[in-house]
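Milestone M4 deliverable, item 7.
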Amino acid sequence: MTVNIDRDGHVVTVTIDRERKLNALDHPTIDALLGSLDLLDADDAVRAVVLTGAGSHAFSAGADIPSLTASIAGGPERALREVVRRGHALTRRIEEFPKPVIVAVNGLAYGAGCEITEAAPLAIATEHAMFAKPEISLGFPPPFGGSQRLPRHVGRKRGLEMILTGDPITAGRAAEIGLVNTVVPASELLAAAHHLADRIIRHAPTAVSACLRAVTRGINLPIDEGLAVEAACFAATVPTEGVRTGLRRFLDRTAARRSPDGRDTPAREQE
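Output delivered:
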């Protein structure tokens, strides 16, 4: 097995397990990740996914070069089918997943590993993590969506600097430009990812899914089209139990804060 799944309540950790290969993504591993995400999507008990790599050296060093070489040797059509379409399917699945995917970057995130980080809605990195877009040194542009997502997320000039030089950046720099949310010591990585997941899944799953959908679908649209996406996502939540429970909880708290004369009691007086 090149992909392991570990359940901890409503949070599932998915681990790319090719440590000897620095968790490089060959075709079967990508297919296994896609299959795992399909299973977790269908499981209502799963509320969030943490995606990481085995060991302490690499989240993923990128595409598996022998697999990549064989596909490219078969010509453009085979390379598009086996590399690009498969890679696009994985990063799009992560990007559009209806439950939060938190990438826990435990080391190198090069090539496809960086592209997965770009596609995920949230990411936490260890202090020793490094990020790079080295595809240019192999003679081609990023094939898993990185030429499109990275500039959109961090800015055209910052994205092109990484894509055109192939030079790595540190975890601190990745946080500075918005590629990851935060940087933590290696010993705290998974705990930090699970803590972030817990802060999210305390909210109604319908609300979480709607927020993810609104941002992911609207982020690259003109503002009027994005607002239409937001409106549709809001409307979809109106009849849900999540909205009924959330409003009732708020109103109950407000009623509990009211003093006998009907005025709201300051929060400090309630402590």
